[in-house]
Task: structure prediction
Amino acid sequence: MFDKILIANRGEIALRVLRACKELGIATVAVHSTADEDAMHVRLADESVCIGPPPAKDSYLNIPALLAACEITGADAVHPGYGFLSENARFAEILAEHNVHFIGPRPEHIRLMGDKIAAKRAAKELGIPVVPGSDGDLGSEAQARRLAREVGYPLMLKAAAGGGGRGMRLVTEETELLSALASARAEAKSAFGDDTLYLEKYLKRPRHIEIQVLGDGKGGAIHLGERDCSLQRRHQKVWEEGPSPALNADARDDIGETVAKAMRAIKYFGVGTVEFLHEDGKFYFIEMNTRIQVEHPVTEMITDIDLILEQIRVAAGGGLQLTQDEVKFHGHAIECRINAENPVSFRPSPGKIVHYHPPGGLGVRVDSAVYHGYVIPPYYDSLVGKLIVHGKTRSECLMRLKRALDEFIVDGVETTLPLFRALAREKDVIDGQYHIHWLEEFLARSGLPE
Result:
């Protein structure tokens, strides 16, 4: 096991990793920008190191500063959390060159899955179903037109190095193709430094289903069920739940085993999530995230498995502690991402929290790093916290969620709590009858901007 882990992140995920380390008896190092010197993970860690000014490029993305922090503190491993450097293959390689363990997949798998075109090609070779589309870069405009006609309209243009909806365009007919290509390439180049695009058949009302996996890097891998992440705004997940209202046990076992088999074939190391669109009973691979997910508590609540703890154990060479038969699912869990944003315009609302009261009670979990008097800085994401609720059934879970949302108080900044209170009472959500476009349609019907 590791002696000391440096947590190369901030906010609730840094605190989440710190808690797992404490339960394993591992010393912790918190790094922070000058904007985060009063952060809760900094207060609770065994040691802390300031790594730069507020901009992420000068602090949390500053690899030399992180290496220096490892050397100063003697940390023998780094946990990257999610975001920032969590899917940076070169960062993992640099740590290895300095005899520091990266708690995450091997660099070759990060690179493979970070390239959406290569990932789709690999998934196809591994027997994972994929969305019909191009096998590589669209190339010239003439080639793009030809490929689009083969796949058929409507279709989606996507950035190969993309994420978060950037570099994506819906094209409903051929007359829109060239302008969409130009704008998508420009956005992809600006966001990722890479304007490579590919196209996929547009599915009209699919659900977004993701499968959680854990591999030992030696050919062993298991799945831990699915999460339904279909409630999204501008391709950003808002509400996640598990198990999905759209799947039965047979479908879950089939797609889970398909994914686990693929992970065994590539000797995947650590945690990861394989994401699909699901429509008319069919799954279509869209991407793989080679890190812990924001929504991982949903899986923890329905399996009683600590994913961060297992991630650390595997990275330390401990192998898998579970067989597939030992993974048991019970009850239902829902996670709501509570952001410091205006609930109508969704503009970020940084500032000081003057009153904070998280909900409690049986089956209620709040993953948050904020506290009374905490100042949410304007430099990073606007997450206040994640409310995760568990119940024996989905109905019980929804009732518990309504109660918890009504108890949740955050004063001093605007939050998205009113949105979730409305969603928890919406008939389609209660019935589980929603898809990836549902939320934006709901916002439009409600007179709110998309």
Summary: The radius of gyration is 21 Å.
